[in-house]
Design a protein that fits this description.
Helix content: 40-55%
Strand content: 5-15%
Bound molecules: protoporphyrin IX containing FE
Distance between the termini: 54 Å
Strand order of the largest sheet: 1-2-8-5-3
CATH superfamily: Cytochrome P450
Radius of gyration: 21 Å
CATH architecture: Orthogonal Bundle
Oligomer: single chain
Structural class: alpha+beta
Number of domains: 1
């Protein structure tokens, strides 16, 4: 027998009382991505849900479902006609927020944009940014190397993705990066939904102004020029200005809100597992694989949403048309049906079947750049600082919602 709203078996582990005692919440019938208990019990919650509960439900706000197994997440992510992105990716979306292209659109609008944007972030194009990213890694380390300590997130992990994307890909000065990083972070994690809307608005206004300014400048043939040129939709209309701004906002959110968590987590894991650190120092060719394992185990995107366009059954649970459904990529990447010992970090794991970068038409456009940032960072860090540890009292702090990030991590060497 299963619980009605969740497909979760009725057993002593899944009674509301047992769940509240173990996780601080009835996560089968009343899950909450923003609950501080989820932030604290992150790994245990993911591991439990993917094993036990193919679908869970939340009563928060307008309510939403979470789909947790790899097969179901993959199937829903591919089935964009039934699981539409056009009504947004965040649960309980603040009123009045403009939709972001391409993330919050379906084909054919989505396809039109991805077709012109993809070449700017293809594996080949991103290889062209590799040396610049390596130089950025060195320049950031230079700023604190002699001190023998750093707060990894504010001095490295939150800066490198912004440098890589703004300076190298978009070609904009990085003076305003701190404001953008703060806007993206508060726009994502603030517990006050109105504040989320306000911060989001600030990022929108800044990027709108930047795009306007670029439209007055000679063309450079870069990503911004492609956005400015726009696309023609199937009905023959030209993409409006708001869509162009939203493309830049979406890229900015993706570009600076995600990689930090993998970076911080990888460095923290190495700081606390000397044997694993030694493994990578002895054989740096393992770093490429290690990055996939870190991306699998430390997923910056916990879950992203879709809206059902018809009644649909997932793992025995009927989800009605018009419901908000989150694809829990973080759970899917730990599915024991697809890998051995998913709760364990194994840097030499072969063929890592993770869904950290998403699945289907919305699969991450920035994954090639993210991989370069991660590889350049680990290689550069281990070359410059091969021995390091967590400063006493400087254990990492985290923040979690539909994304997860690390807020602080104090290191010394
Ligand atoms: C470790 C780093 C990253 C992770 C884990 C990540 C994860 C994801 C995921 C899971 C999606 C799928 C969304 C969905 O299914 O609705 C996605 C989409 C997207 N990502 Fe990333 N991302 C990362 C880095 C980046 C970077 C560096 C950029 C920009 C340069 C970026 C830009 C985007 C954009 C624009 C989309 C929307 C694509 C679409 O809707 O077609 N991401 N990302």
């Amino acid at each position: 027998m299963t619980q009605e709203s969740s497909g979760c078996p009725v057993d002593p582990e899944t009674t509301p009382e047992a769940l509240i005692e173990r996780f601080g919440r009835d996560l089968v019938n009343d899950f909450d991505l923003d609950d501080p208990a989820f932030n604290t019990n992150f790994d245990e919650t993911l591991n439990f849900m993917v094993r036990k509960c193919p679908v869970v439900h939340s009563k928060v706000g307008r309510g939403y479902y979470l789909i947790n197994t790899q097969d179901d997440v993959r199937a829903a992510a591919q089935n964009w006609k039934t699981f539409s992105s056009a009504k947004g990716y965040m649960p309980n979306r603040p009123e009045g927020l403009p939709y972001l292209m391409p993330e919050e659109s379906d084909p054919p609008i989505h396809t039109a944009w991805r077709r012109v944007l993809n070449p700017h972030l293809s594996p080949k194009t991103c290889l062209g940014y590799e040396q610049a990213v390596r130089d950025d890694v060195d320049a950031l380390i230079d700023q604190f190397f002699d001190r023998g300590t750093c707060e990894f997130i504010s001095e490295f992990g939150a800066l490198l993705p912004g440098w890589a994307f703004f300076k190298n890909v978009l070609g904009v000065p990085i003076d305003d990066l701190a404001m953008l990083v703060n806007g993206v972070e508060e726009g994502t994690f603030s517990l006050d939904m109105e504040e989320r809307g306000r911060k989001f608005g600030e990022v929108f206004a800044y990027l709108d102004a930047h795009l306007k300014w670029r439209s007055t400048q000679p063309a450079r043939g870069d990503l911004i020029d492609t956005i400015l040129a726009g696309v023609t939709y199937e009905d023959g209309t030209q993409s409006p200005w708001e869509h162009k701004v939203s493309i830049l906002v979406d890229l900015t959110f993706g570009g600076i809100a995600t990689t930090t968590f993998v970076l911080g987590s990888a460095i923290h894991h190495l700081a606390t597992h000397p044997d694993q650190l030694q493994l990578l120092l002895d054989d740096p060719s393992l770093i490429e694989n290690a990055i996939e394992e870190y991306a699998r185990f430390y997923p910056p995107v916990v879950a992203l949403g879709r809206t059902t366009t018809a009644d649909v059954e997932v793992a025995g649970t009927t989800i009605k048309e018009g419901e908000f459904v989150m694809l829990a990529y973080a759970c899917a990447s730990r599915d024991p049906r697809h890998m051995d010992e998913p709760e364990k970090i194994d840097l030499a794991r072969e063929g890592i079947p993770h869904s950290t970068f998403g699945v289907g038409p919305h699969r991450c456009i920035g994954s090639n750049l993210a991989r370069i940032e991660l590889t350049a960072s680990l290689e550069g860090w281990l070359r410059r600082i091969p021995s390091f540890r967590v400063k006493p009292g400087g254990e990492p702090t985290y923040v979690t919602g539909f994304l997860r990030s690390m807020r602080t991590l104090h290191l010394e060497w």
